[in-house]
Amino acid sequence: MILPSYLQTVRNDLLARVSGGDILINGSVSVPVQAVEIAAHPIAGIQDGIALQVSAQHVSSVPVITNVKLRTRTGAVVAEKNGTIEMNGAQFVNLSFVIEARGGV
User: What DSSP assignment string belongs to 40-67?
Assistant: First the structure.
């Protein structure tokens, strides 16, 4: 079991690393993270999960998103998602990334 105090440390670390980072869309277009927050609601099926909600501006040159990577300000990939999101003229995009904190040996 992970102590709540350690999970809070992990949350704070993720927020610090992702703030000032970017989202790499379809492996070619980088957009800065505008806002990031930790979701307060529990995550179904994950005991020690952290849900990062990230906002970025829409990029008009990307009509369909198939892959996104959440990166730190130094370019390290924190999380990745695959799927199909048709932008249809949207002005911004909100993405949720679920990260599970696990204890080690």
Answer: -S--TT-TTEEEEEEEEE--TT-SEEEE
Q: Find, among 26, 17, 4, the residue nearest to 93 by Cα.
A: 26
The DSSP line for the chain is ---HHHHHHHHHHHHHHHTT-EEEETTTEEEE--EEEE--S--TT-TTEEEEEEEEE--TT-SEEEEEEEE-TT--EEEEEEEEEE-TT-SEEEEEEEEE-----
Q: How far apart are the first and last CA of the chain?
A: 12
The per-residue pLDDT for 72 is 94
Per-domain residue ranges for the chain? 4-100
- Which has the closest alpha carbon to 20: 8, 30, 37, 35? 35
**Residue 23, pLDDT score:** 93
pTM of the model: 0.80
Residues 7-35 pLDDT 10s: 888 888 988 999 999 999 999 999 999 88
